[in-house]
Amino acid sequence: MKRALTQIANELGLNMDTLERWIRQGKIPVNKQGYMGIYNEFELNRWAEKQRKSIIHPENIDDLKKDCLNKDFQNENRLSASVLTSALKKGGVFHNIRGSNKEEVLYAAIYAIAEFIDKDKDEIYRQLIERERLASTGIGKGIAIPHPRNPLVKIGLTEPMIVTCFLEKSIDFEAIDDKQVSTLFLLFSPTIELHLNLLSRLSFCLRDNDFITFLNQKPDKDLLLSRINEIENSIDKNI
Amino acid sequence: MRKIKKIASWRHPGTLSIFIMDDRLLLICMGIVVGLCSGLAALALNYSLIFIMNNLDNFRHYWWSFLIPASGAMFSSIFLKKIIKDRGGHGVPEVIHSVSRYGGRLDLSSIFSRLVASCLTIGSGGSAGPEAPVVVSGSAIGSNIARFFSLNERQRITLVGCGAAGAIASIFNAPLTGIIFTMEIILGEWSMVNIIPIAVASVAGAEISRNLRGNIIAFESSINFDLSNYHFVACVGLALCASVASVVFTRILRKMHNLSHDVPIPFWLKASIGGAAVGVIGFAIPEVMGEGYHSIHQMIAGIFKDGMGIAVIGCLAKIFATSMTLGWGGSGGIFAPSLVIGSFTGLAYHRFISFLFPSVPWVNEGCFALLGMAGMISGILQAPLTGIFLILEITGSYEVMLSLIIVSTLSTTITHYAEPASFYLKELTESGQLLRPGTDSRVLADISIREVVETDCIAVYPDMLLRELIYTVKESTRNYFPVEDRDTGNFVGIIQLDHIKPYIFNTLMYDTVLVEQIMDSTPDTVSYDDDLSEVLRKMDMKRCFSLPVISNGKFAGMISKATLLDKYRDELNVQTAHSF
C-alpha cells in the first residue's frame, strides 16, 4: 500500500520525526519514497500489534473528531443559551406553599408540581429529605435550594427544571445563617454537569441583594423570569 | 520504462515486496557477498605483509635498520592523516562507535586506508596487529554495500557485522571466532536476525581463506597437551598474571598516547620516533618486531629460547614496543600484540612454576603460552567467549578446553576490577558515546526533542490582566502558559498553574494583577539541540516535570516527563524487538 507519510504517522499516533527516523533505522516495516510510505498493510498491522500501537483508520479518526465536536457543540448549546431561565420556566412558580416545618413544606411543594406522577413524587420526596439530612440546603438570606443527591434519570427527567416555591409563612430550615426561609428553589436535573451549571448560575443571581429583595416581594412567574433572563444574559455576555 | 524500473529495483532490493515482508533472505545473500569481499581484503593484507617482510628481511642486520620501522610508521601516518584525512584511532572503537551512533555508517575510503597504513607500519617492523585494520576494512565493505543498495540502518549494522566477521574468520581461518567477536564486541547484542547473516558471512570469509591459502590452523601445535588436575590450580595463577599483563598493557598504551599528544612536534615525526624506538628494541629482542606470529608459533611448539628472564623481558619489551608504535602514531591493532604478550606471559609463568616446583611433571610450556593468550585476549577485550573460541580455533587444541575456560573467565573478571571497560570501549564509555541497543542511554540518544515536544500550549502576554489569564486557563488543557512579548513574540517567561493558585481564587486580584507580575521570568529552558539525557538531568535537579523548549528566542513547546515516558516505551519496544 502507498500512503503519505503524514497519514501513516497520524494513523499510528506517531510524531512525523519519529516515523521518519524509524524508517531510516529500519525499525518499522515501511519504505520511504519521497513523501510517500510504501508498506504491506498486514505486516504493518502485525508490527503495530506487537508494539501495542493501535491503528486507527483515517475514516474513524474523522468520525471520532466529529463525535467530539458534536458533543461539545450540543453541550455548549444546552449550557450557554439561558439554561437557567428555561429551567425556571419549565419548573414553574408556586405561591403560598403551606407547612410549618421542612418536611411538610417539601411535601407540599412536590405535590404542587404537575410534572411528576404520584408514584415518583414519594421517591423524590424521600431523596430530598435524605439530602436535607446530610446538610441543609438553606443557603442563607431566606433562600433554600433543595435537590436530590443523584440526577433524576430514573423517573425519566430529560430536561432540567427548577421549581420556585414562595412559602405562605417563613419556616426554620436550619439554614447556614439561621434565618427563616421563605423561598425554595427545587432543583432537578438529568445530569450532574447540568446540575452544577444551574447551581452556579442560580447562586450568581442570589449573590445580588437587590434580587433577594425582589424575591421577598414574591413576584409572579413572568416578572421572575424576565428578571432572571436579564441577569443570565449578562453572565453569558461576560463569558 | 519497464527496464528502468527493473534497474531501480535492483539497486533497491529493500523495496522488493518479498523483502519488505522479511529481509532475512536479503541479509543472508548480502552477508555472503560481504563475507567474501572482506575475506579477500584480509587475505590481501596478509599477503602483502608477507611480501614486504620477506623483502625487508635482507636489510635487518644493518645498523641503520631501525630507520625502516621509523619510515614505515611515518609514511603510514602521513598516508592516513594527509592523503585520506582519517581521524586516526585503533580502528575497532571507530567501528563500534559508528554502529552505536550512526547506524553503521563508514567511509568508502576506510575500506583500504587502514589496510595500506597498517601494511606500511607492520610490514616495516612496527609492533602492531593486522586484525583491527581488516575488521575496519571488512566493516566498511559491509557498510558501503548496504549504502549502495539503500538498505536501512538496521540492515546496514548487520552487514557491518558481517564484514567484521568475514575478516576475522578469513585472517585466522576461524569462522566461530568471527561470529563471536562480532556479536560480543562489535554489535554487543545477540539476536537471531543478526546472527544468521553474520554466521553465513563468517563461513564465506573462512571459505575463501581456505580456498586460497589452504586449510591451515594458524598456530597448530604438534604436541598433545595432557592436563592433570593440579594444572587447574596453576591456571588461577596464570589468569592473575594475564590480567596484570592486560591492565599494564592497557595503561601503558594510553599513557603513551597521552604523552605523544603533549609533545609539540609534527605527527609524522612522532610516528617515526615511535617506529625508531621499536627498531632499536628490535636489535636486542627481534621478537617484538612486526605482528609477532612467528614467535607465537615457536612458543606454542615449545621451542622458544630457554630462560625465564627472556620470557619476562620479551613480554615487557612487546608491551613497550606496541605502545611506542600505536601510541605515537603508527597504524594497526592490538589483537596480535596481545596474543604475543599473552604467550610470553604464559611462558614466563610456566618457567616460574617449573622453577618453584621442579619435581612436578608440568605439561609442555606451549600449553601455558596458549592459555596465556586466551587470558590476555579475554582480559584486555573483556570478552571471554572471543578469547576461548579464538584460541581453540587458531591452535586446534581442543583438549585444553577446560583450562581455557577457567583462564579466560577468571582473567576477564580480575581485569574488570582494575579496568571496568574493555580497551576498545574505554574511550567511548568515557565520552558517553557507547550506546548499546536497548539501554537507557541508547533510547534517550535516539529520541530527539523535536519528537517529544508538545506544542498545544496557549501563549499569554505580559500586559494581560489576571482575569484574562483565567479565561485562558479555562480554555487550555495544559498547566503551563508561555508568556510572549506582544511585539516581538519572544519568550519572556512562563506561568505555571501551580504557582498562581494563591491568586486565582482571590477575585479582588483579578483586575489588579498583571501577568508579568506573577510569571516566572527566569525559568530553565531547553533547546532543540539539547541531549535528552541532559534535559532529564535538568528536570531531576529542579524537581520539575516540564520544561519549555526555546528555539531562536521563541517559545516552541513544552517537554514533559509524561509524554517522554510514552515515547520512551515506544522506543524501547522498537529497539528491543529484533524483527518485524
Task: Please describe what this structure looks like.
The complex is a heterodimer of chains A (239) and B (580). Chain A contains ten helices and eight strands. Chain A is elongated and about 85 Å long. In chain A, 54% of the residues lie in helices and 17% in strands. Chain A folds into two domains: 2-56, Arc Repressor Mutant, subunit A; 76-238, 3-Layer(aba) Sandwich (Mannitol-specific EII, Chain A), CATH 3.40.930.10. In chain A, a hairpin with a 2-residue loop joins β5 and β6. Chain A has 239 residues and is an alpha/beta fold. Mean pLDDT of chain A is 78; it is low at 71-78. By secondary structure, chain B is mainly alpha-helical. Chain B has three domains: 2-213, Orthogonal Bundle (Clc chloride channel); 230-430, Clc chloride channel (Orthogonal Bundle); 444-576, CBS-domain. Chain B contains 26 helices and four strands. In chain B, the strands form two sheets. In chain B, strands 1-2 form a two-stranded antiparallel ribbon. A two-stranded antiparallel ribbon of chain B has the order 3-4. In chain B, α4 (67-84) packs antiparallel against α12. The two termini of chain B are 33 Å apart. The mean pLDDT of chain B is 86. Chain A binds chain B through residues 14-15, 17-18, 21-29, 31, 33, 38-40, 43, 46-47, 50-53, and chain B through 14-15, 17, 20-21, 103, 151-156, 446-448, 450-452, 567, 570, 573-575, 577, 580.
